[in-house]
Amino acid sequence: MAVYQATASAPVNIACIKYWGKRDTKLILPTNSSLSVTLDQDHLRSTTTSRADPSFTKDRLWLNGTEDEIKAGGRLATCISEMKRMRKEYEDQNPNEPKLSDFYVHICSRNNFPTAAGLASSASGFAALVSSLAALYKLPASPSKLSLIARQGSGSACRSLFGGFVAWEQGTSPDGSDSFAVEVAPREHWPDIHALICVVSDDKKGTSSTSGMQRTVETSALLQHRIKHVVPERMRAISEAIKARDFDAFARITMQDSNQFHAVALDTEPPIFYMNDVSRAIIALVVEYNRVSVEAGGKLKAAYTYDAGPNAVIYAPKENLREIVEMIVKYFPQADPFKDPFGLFGAAGVTEGGVIPGFNTAVAKQFEVGAVKNLIHTRVGDGPRVLGAEEALLGAEGFPKSIS
Amino acid sequence: MAVYQATASAPVNIACIKYWGKRDTKLILPTNSSLSVTLDQDHLRSTTTSRADPSFTKDRLWLNGTEDEIKAGGRLATCISEMKRMRKEYEDQNPNEPKLSDFYVHICSRNNFPTAAGLASSASGFAALVSSLAALYKLPASPSKLSLIARQGSGSACRSLFGGFVAWEQGTSPDGSDSFAVEVAPREHWPDIHALICVVSDDKKGTSSTSGMQRTVETSALLQHRIKHVVPERMRAISEAIKARDFDAFARITMQDSNQFHAVALDTEPPIFYMNDVSRAIIALVVEYNRVSVEAGGKLKAAYTYDAGPNAVIYAPKENLREIVEMIVKYFPQADPFKDPFGLFGAAGVTEGGVIPGFNTAVAKQFEVGAVKNLIHTRVGDGPRVLGAEEALLGAEGFPKSIS
């Protein structure tokens, strides 16, 4: 008997122009366009196996070893039913294809990074879900078309349907048909963009993005100005910077927009804070690192950006990563040795860290071990990949191979 | 020989609608109007003695026991020369008065609160300076007229020329002649407004207000929107709330405006942070304290506000202060016993603190002793006072009585 199964992986993306605010909460239509860098799946990815089988009695999904309820009308159910609808269209046009759209599916998904890291995994997760179902269903859909479905799972998931540099065009249509992701430039255009993720310890769970952004929409006097007047110009300018591989402009806009996103969160009632004192200290270090360069007649060498949490992502040309890791390690001593995937430090590894000449070390204090729990060095990456059967997460019977 | 000497004290004020941004940095003309509550001089004040004498060889000023240089063209020199100019006008109209405007002055000033507290003392300081010179020179000038001079020493000093609730009208004239303070309501109109100042420990010196606000003017995309569209409406609404003694509206606007001031600081390049994790925790406590009241059908019971530093000022009707002190002490254990100027706690004093029923204690963690260094309980207060000779800070020879 035929087995209908496919496995795909999808990357994480970190926005440079932030998505914050929905104009339609059910369809997940944003109040402004956004733009992100896709990170390398070799370091951070979600992998998903989907299988359709007439023996299944309902749609089921396991995430990181635990079964998730697929609530009727919820985001998971919406994505699955939308993919089945597209399969049905495909079957209607190709009558010889098996009627998979009539079968229930089993879906198994895993992230290769700890959930505890506080890295938004819904983007890579929904992108992998949609990609695996698209492979299972043999859909001829483009990434932009698939991004329409992923968007309804988690807004920023739509941007994980592409590698490289990706815009999510907000669109204007009430049905969301023009609110999808497009590639601004592939990773090959500017492979030199590396990223250092500083996983910051947090005492408490902050506000969820979903509820937080709607409170901002309802109460911030500044958000509307951002939406109408600031973001459109920044989208244009950062796209140009990417096309021109102009890191200085890219970095400036990225930092401005991270700051402004957190500013409108603060302008919310009651205010929303995602950054903590550690986040602020990392900003101070990057600002000082750039200041030294600019005062010597150079350009910006690094850009910080923060999503809805305290973790910093530092973007920089590869050649600066060694200095940046040294700087972060000096102020945030690490419990575990720095995993050095690009071999910046040789066999000895990074030890106590240090700063570049001319750096004012008083811009931040040295924190205790654990303030930054972990450092992940990665780079701009590719889009979703369809994987071979050997990487499937479902066993012969269509259930998770191992539950951990 | 006649002694020409006068002593005055002036209060601190804490803004509810924040002043942030100058349209003229020399004349200190603001980009938006602001509004503050004057705090009680019985708890926080600057006292200044000024003396004019033909034997003096130059203008001199001692602040908290240390001589300050009066730089030519600087803010101190501007205030002193403006006051001399007004004295000269008075002498021209009253030819029998001594020609004090020809004499040099000695000025001695003290704050009754520690500079290390991080409370802006320039407002009370310049207000006391101007008030003592006005008394020395017997000027018939109104507080609004004197506020034009104090403003040129430190913008927010102009608001310390009145007690109670004070607006600083930004004005439109390029010469600053219509940028002065006016009384919205005297303390007697709403004496029930109390304040708890939480002096928050800070690891490092932040950005000075003077340089910070101009960076915001130059780089924040959101500040202009705030200036043009948000502040005018808030000034109107909070003035109404004060006139109506509507604490709920007063509190809401005060918290919104504190948040928005810090939001535009964050929207600055590079970003400016004044609040730290302790400040954020105090906000979370006040938000939760209000939530419990509102969910029970009540109104807002407290309002936080933060100036350009991490210290919180909590405004509340007097009846809530006991609960508020208990709440703060629970999360921020104090090294020293709470000074209880209004006798909220009786002989036993406040011990471990506590929260009101229904309060979600998980909104903040308990901090270590010292995170909030000190609590100052005060209330709305009166304007500058002319003091008797027994309170003079200058001795018989016109020099500071004691240098500590």
UniProtKB/TrEMBL annotation, chains A, B:
Matching Gene3D superfamilies: 3.30.230.10, GHMP kinase, C-terminal domain
Mvd1 C-terminal domain sequence ranges: 195-387
Catalysed reactions listed for this entry: (R)-5-diphosphomevalonate + ATP = isopentenyl diphosphate + ADP + phosphate + CO2
Protein source organism: Serpula lacrymans var. lacrymans (strain S7.3)
Coiled-coil stretches: none
PANTHER family per UniProt: DIPHOSPHOMEVALONATE DECARBOXYLASE
GO terms, molecular function: ATP binding; diphosphomevalonate decarboxylase activity
Pathway: Isoprenoid biosynthesis; isopentenyl diphosphate biosynthesis via mevalonate pathway; isopentenyl diphosphate from (R)-mevalonate: step 3/3
Domain of life, per lineage: Eukaryota
Record-stated family: Belongs to the diphosphomevalonate decarboxylase family.
Keywords (A to Z) from UniProt: ATP-binding, Lipid biosynthesis, Lipid metabolism, Lyase, Nucleotide-binding, Steroid biosynthesis, Steroid metabolism, Sterol biosynthesis, Sterol metabolism
Enzyme class: lyase
Gene Ontology, cellular component aspect: cytosol
Protein's recorded name: Diphosphomevalonate decarboxylase
Enzyme Commission numbers on file: 4.1.1.33
GO BP term, example: isopentenyl diphosphate biosynthetic process, mevalonate pathway
Residue ranges annotated for the Diphosphomevalonate decarboxylase-like N-terminal domain, each copy included: 10-181
